[in-house]
Write a structure and sequence with these properties.
globular; 15 helices; three-stranded mixed beta sheet; about 5% strand; 3 strands; binds zinc ion; mainly alpha
């Protein structure tokens, strides 16, 4: 029953696409894919990703990251999706989202964030990509709706699925990383600022984290390549974040940091020396 229902709505989707025609409408029409279908797609990507990446399993760290991500997701514009949030065991400073609510936060990002609001800025941005369905839209743009249809019906090309999963996760180098485009990045930042504000977290952390990135941008140190490859205009993002924040009503209850964040950060292993020297952690 479930399978035929899914098939039915996919046929409807394809019919609407064909009747309206043209690539220009593809992105809007793609929203006809249900949460369940997007989740089914994300599940296949996440399975591939987790075969390649090592997850970090300190339960206290994982619980904290999940709590923080769920707080942001709960006040997002897509609160009813199930968000699965995991920590990747790498020094690289990055986080990434996979369609359907899968969110990965690198251990190196937690170490490099100075306070909770800086971490929440990056996580909120990735939640924003999920909220905006940017991943699914990019796949339909890059690989065509046919690929998605086949994948959801279980007849997709496994090699292609693996390749797209690798693009989301930056597995196998940064050259193949999936880029959402400037509009989507701006939208994700806009969502993030609002999510942070509504979750009681000071959104200024998003700006301060990017300000640090601006300083590094001329010569990105090792460990930052993936972040810069997918997010090439940190100054523009700082300006945009500051502008969005200036429009928000001042709220005294916004928190920049928490004891729990600092405790979690202190549990993490030290970042390897080659990265530490570029991250103002002294000699
Ligand atoms: Zn992004």
């Amino acid at each position: 029953m479930l399978a035929s229902g899914r098939k039915g709505s996919l046929i409807l989707l394809v019919a609407v696409m064909v009747s309206q025609g043209g690539c220009g409408k593809t992105l809007q029409n793609f929203n006809l894919v249900s949460d369940g279908q997007e989740q089914a797609m994300g599940q296949q990507f996440s399975k591939e990703i987790e075969q390649e990446l090592k997850l970090y399993d300190d339960p206290e760290v994982v619980r904290y990251i999940d709590d923080l991500g769920q707080r942001l997701a709960a006040v997002s514009k897509r609160p009813n999706l199930t968000y699965q949030i995991k920590v990747v065991d790498t020094d690289d400073v990055n986080a990434f989202a996979v369609p359907g609510g899968y969110l990965y936060v690198n251990r190196g990002l937690i170490s490099h964030a100075e306070n909770e609001s800086e971490l929440a800025g990056v996580m909120g941005h990735e939640v924003g990509h999920i909220v905006g369905r940017h991943g699914s839209k990019q796949i339909s743009k890059q690989y065509g709706l046919q690929f998605i249809t086949a994948m959801l019906l279980g007849g997709g090309d496994p090699g292609m699925t693996r390749q797209i999963a690798a693009q989301f996760a930056g597995i196998g180098g940064t050259l193949g990383l999936l880029k959402y485009g400037r509009e989507a990045e701006r939208e994700a930042d806009t969502f993030a600022v609002q999510e942070m504000y509504d979750a009681g977290i000071d959104p200024v952390g998003m700006a301060t984290f990017f300000e640090k990135l601006v300083a590094l941008h001329g010569a990105p140190p090792s460990g930052f390549q993936a972040l810069f490859s997918t997010h090439p205009n940190p100054q523009e993002r700082v300006d945009n974040a500051r502008r969005l924040i200036s429009r928000l009503e001042v709220k005294d209850s916004l928190k920049k940091d928490s004891k729990r964040f600092q405790r979690i950060k202190s549990r993490l292993p030290a970042i390897k020396r080659r990265e530490a020297k570029d991250a103002s952690q002294g000699n």
